[in-house]
Amino acid sequence: MTLRIRVDDDVPIEMRDGIKLRADIYRHDDDAKHPAILFRSYNRAYGRVLPLRQDLIEAGYAFINSDLRGRGGSEGEWKPENNFVVEGLDGYDTIEWIARQTWCDGNVGMVGISHAASFQYMAALEQPPHLKAIAPWTGDFNEMFVPPYTGGAISFITTLIWLPRESADYVNRQAKRGHDVAEMRRVLDWARMHPSEVANFLPFKDVPLAKIGRIGELLNWRLHPITQPELEKHKQYERITIPCFHECGWYDGAGWTEFENFNNLCQRAGSQYAREGQYIVAGPWPHASQFQSTLGDINFGFSADTLGSGVHQLLVAFFDKHLRGKDIVIPSVRYFVMGANQWRNADAWPLPQTDWQRFYLHSQGNANASAGDGILSRDEPGVEAPDEFVYNPLDPVPTTGGPLIGFVEGPGIIAGPVEQSHVERRADVLCYTTPELQDDLEITGPLRLHLFAATSACDTDFAAKLVQVYLDGRAYNLAEGLIRASGRNFGDTRALVNPGEVYEYVITLGNTSQLFRKGHRLRVQISSSNFPQFDRNMNTGNPIGEDALGVSALQTIYHQPGFASYIDLPVIPQSKG
After folding, report:
1. Measured between alpha carbons, how far is 168 from 179 in angstroms, rounded to an integer?
2. Which residues contact 149 (CB under 8 A, 6 or more apart)?
3. According to the model, what pLDDT value does residue 1 have?
4. Which CATH number applies to 355-572?
5. Could you tell me the pTM of the whole model?
6. Cα separation of 486 and 153, whole Å?
7. Catalytic residue flag (residue 114)
């Protein structure tokens, strides 16, 4: 039997203030009532190419693909800095409009990736009566994607990608209103064609993008995100009373927040039904993409892509369970173990059987580059000479793979695991490596590095990576993070450091799942930059974008009694036989 689909394009949906949003509606061409799934985005074009759309329609759901206020065909003004104010209410009104339609059975869910995940959280906080479940994939409550626990460092590459791309719709709307947009288009074209020039422009506050009205305002907004405490105020987990299906990737810049939201909602959601209805899937994917089996330099096999992973079937099952009331068992946690290239299920995150083990940094003061004497081991350090390197903000360590955020990559950068040898030859990258493993070792869970360090500057950054070293010496990044010294306390205000004083820095590296094979080695990289993944610290204590030159800083890394630097690894015991 041929499935007949009716498509209604550009349907107006009126909000409480009279503004009309526009949506495309895909539904079965029959007289039956169906549950509905809402996708809200900057641009309906994203929803039109979303592979999941067809899966949901074939499963019997209506699919509503809506432009946000002030975007695409929708009326109003696009003000992303006010999203916490307007998007929850617009989401509420759209959901309740859908529920009133003759073709809807009153059960509405939401789905969306990246920023479209953020808008789901915002809508759920408003508790629309007919919203029964959401599926926020690779997103957070805050669509700015503030990197978690960096102490104020921003996802610089995200800003470089996001601003030129998302400003295009704004410029086109201004042109339709009769405004002269020639200069805007010239600057945006320059930014798209020359991303390296944009990234390296100093002082960044004077980059041409900052000089063109509304686009300059948006750039300033991106450069000065809300603080961690401010973000936490918006995360009112107790107001979410419905099930959520979270999804993220091991190489996804939003991955840490999805796990954090999953765990918090399991504990703090506003109903037992919601607390018991949290699910998360994590695979070897970058931000906002589950479609390929190869990422960076590594092929993870057929089971890693959309078809092999079965992630879409899981999501349909989730909606069938919570919108249709079907009795379906869904694993709370489903995760992909890289190296083994297998999917596994669990009841909680971190895994209940996790054996937390500290791997300590060691050297005799010469851990610079992979050829240095840095060692990583379970042994606590004795009296050891510290390691030193000079961080020059005009020669930052280049981003090489990793958890990037963006549908397109930045200047010469690809997401995922990328061979690290050219980075590890630098004197400003310290390397601490284990001996060859005598047995397989699985690391699955959240990662944090405790670093005791001093700097000659009043402010600086410390960056870290966990790396897998193959038998032939090739090294691939698994997880990474960065901490800004002045934001080490994660408060509302910055606190500069005293030059030469030793501080403990806790660097959040995200989550991963990796089976290290016998003979492979683990490595920790320490540096002071990862650019343009993060904005570079100019070591002056000035706000982001103010400095044209900056100053070099002498960095000292300690590993001795009282200042024992270590990475806390979630080791998973291997079954015998």
Report:
1. 14
2. 228, 256, 481, 483, 490, 506, 508
3. 56
4. 2.60.120.260
5. 0.95
6. 10
7. yes
Q: Rounded to whole angstroms, how far apart are CA atoms 100 and 557?
A: 62
Q: Are strands 62-67 and 104-113 parallel, antiparallel or unpaired?
A: unpaired
Asked if the domains at 1-137 and 355-572 fall in one CATH topology, the answer is: no
Residue 194 is among the residues annotated as catalytic for this protein: no
Cβ proximity of 524 and 467 under 8 Å? yes
Domain ranges for the chain: 1-137, 156-222, 355-572
Dist CA 184 CA 172 (whole Å): 10
- Exactly one of 114, 309, 363, 370 is catalytic; name it: 114
Q: Please compute the mean of the pLDDT values over residues 477-491 and round it to a whole number.
A: 94
Given 24, 90, 252, 387, which residue is catalytic?
A: 252
Q: What share of the chain is helix, strand, coil (3-state, %, to 5)?
A: 25, 30, 40
Q: What is the pLDDT of residues 64-88, one digit of tens each?
A: 999 999 998 999 998 887 777 899 9
Active site annotation includes 252: yes
Query: What SS3 class is residue 435?
Result: coil
Active-site choice (34, 115, 246, 287): 287
- Output the CATH code of domain 1-137: 3.40.50.1820
What does the alpha-carbon distance between residue 224 and residue 234 come to, in Å, rounded to a whole number? 17
pLDDT in tens, 542-566: 999 999 999 999 999 999 999 999 9
Name the packing angle between helices 213-223 and 182-193 (round to 10°).
40
